[in-house]
Amino acid sequence: MMSRRGSVAVLLGAWLMATATTALALPSSFPTGTTYYDPERAYNGFVLFPGGDRKTHLIDMNGNEVHRWDYESFPPIPLSAEQAGGEKGHLLVQLARADKLPEHASPGNGLTNAAVAEVNWDGEVQWHWGSQQDPVYQHHDMRRLSNGNNLVMTAEMRELNGFDYPIIENGIEEVDDEGQVVWTWKAGDHLDEMGFSDAGLRSLKDSEDPDFLHLNTAVPVGPNRWYDAGDERFAPDNILVNSRNANVTFIVDRQSGEIVWRIGPDLPALQLNGKLGRPVDQTVGSHDVHLIPKGLPGAGNLLIFDNQGNAGFPPSKQGFFSSSRVIEVNPSSGKIVWQYTGNMSGRSPYTFYSSFISSARRLPNGNTLIDEGQNGRLFQVTPAGEIVWEYVSPFFGKSMPNDDYVTNQVYRAQLVDYDWAPAGTPHEETAVMPDCDIYVAAPGCGPGDADDLSEQ
């Protein structure tokens, strides 16, 4: 059982108080599992995520692991029953890492991944693409398309005109059920459409970083109100793409291959506590950029986990504190309409920070599921920023075999409804509450929730 009760929530309060004074230097011992849970205000379901142990986990809201797939996921993509021939509990996963790794290989750039697959609830392979003899080097994203094909982000080494060194080319490929590539797009062929200034291009080339773009999102735009209103740039089958290292997000037209819409790379200076309705300010190293799907609050707006790590050409200036944010952006006006920062939960901004990986997803009740990836911390917030569920991954492991450390990092977290899993899959919905008389920093505690400690 991965769930915890009040004692864990108390420990969490101590942990959060410690991080407020140590600038996110995590203690060597801290709570894992569900640390806080308000069933009445949370949106309840199963949470799917890849663990630091290089396995894929499905938990309930109390942190009980209800299922596990012994496959690494970069990331796991849940398939609907309609997408999986009527069966529940199917995933797209990374099937295997390559036995022989090319130069520059790391999990972050995808040059470690030999094959991807669809697996069923029991882990049986239903479809796969790639092999040890012919690795596909998938990374960061893949999706099942409405026509039954799969959209896969890939990597390869390439010589590119204007560069004095080989680059890691980021590709997007549509693959049919026979493993045939039926559509391809290569980022290196479209650098002049990404909005780099002359100085930015010089900085990019002078960096001698072969992974200078480091794409981390490739997702169909999906049905949306902008296309319904006549803006063809937002055609549902166009591809929304994000570059983590270059701070630019753009839409690729499926017919022409051209970039037809973008934000970044150069934006106004960061205003972390600025008013809503302002133009989007400088994002740095963002992840999981997507349009909120139809039927959810905020549908049609961009949801962005803005890491505020190190990125940009030249490197973008950040705020005084190392702190992340989640922003919701109207892609038509380019203005921020909602944001989450650590201080919205009654803490200092730097208590919410992940310099890499991470994700944010809007939920049907208006809450947002956030993955603070580098710390393996998943939490759900209301529109006002109140934490109503919090979980710390207990699954540790090494990203690469030769690493001299372990991590519980979580690349991406997604909530699926209970009926996504086969009938009879158990789940628990028991409140996990802190003792606010002792730890006012814990989630769910605040003014009026605890006695005045100065009087004790």
Describe the protein in words.
By secondary structure, the chain is mostly beta strands. 7% of the residues lie in helices and 30% in strands. The protein has 3 helices and 25 strands. The chain has a 5-stranded antiparallel sheet. Strand 10 and strand 11 form a beta hairpin. The radius of gyration is 21 Å and the shape is globular. The two termini are 36 Å apart. The model is unreliable at 1-23 and 448-456 (pLDDT under 50).
Summarize the structure.
Residues 1-25 form the signal peptide. This protein is mainly beta.
Mean pLDDT: 91
Q: What series of H and E elements makes up the topology? A: HEEEEEEEEEEEEHEHEEEEEEEEEEEE
Helix content: under 10%
- Write out the strand line-up for the largest beta sheet, numbering strands in chain order: 1-24-23-22-21
Q: How would you sum up the major sheet?
A: 5 strands, antiparallel
| End-to-end C-alpha gap | 36 Å
Structural class: mainly beta
Strand residue percentage: 25-35%
Return residue spans where pLDDT drops below 50 for at least 5 consecutive residues.
Answer: 1-23, 448-456
Outline type: globular
Please count the beta strands (DSSP E, at least 2 residues each): 25
Tell me the Rg in angstroms.
Answer: 21 Å
Number of helices: 3
Keywords: Signal
Organism: Salinicola acroporae
InterPro entries: Arylsulfate_ST, Arylsulfotransferase_bact, Quinoprotein_ADH-like_sf, WD40/YVTN_repeat-like_dom_sf
Protein name: ArsR family transcriptional regulator
Structural descriptors:
signal; disordered N terminus; 4-stranded antiparallel beta sheet; 5-stranded antiparallel beta sheet; mainly beta; Quinoprotein_ADH-like_sf; 456 residues
